[in-house]
Amino acid sequence: MTAPLLEGRVALVTGGARGIGHAVSRALHALGASVLVADAGVGIGGDAPDPSVANAVAASLGHRAAAFTADLASPGQAEAAVAAARERFGAIDVVVNNAAILRDGFIFKTQRDDWQRVLEVNLHTPFAILAAATPAMREQVKSGRAPGRIVNVISSAGLVGNFAQSAYASAKAGLAGLTRTVAMDLHRSGILCNAVAPFAATRVTESIQAANDAQAEYKARGLRVPAEHVARVIAFLVSPANGFTGQILGVRGREIFLFSQARPVARVVSEPLDRQDALALGGVLEAEFADRLTDLATDLELFNTEPLL
Question: Does the 10-261 domain belong in CATH 3.40.910.10?
Answer without folding.
Answer: no
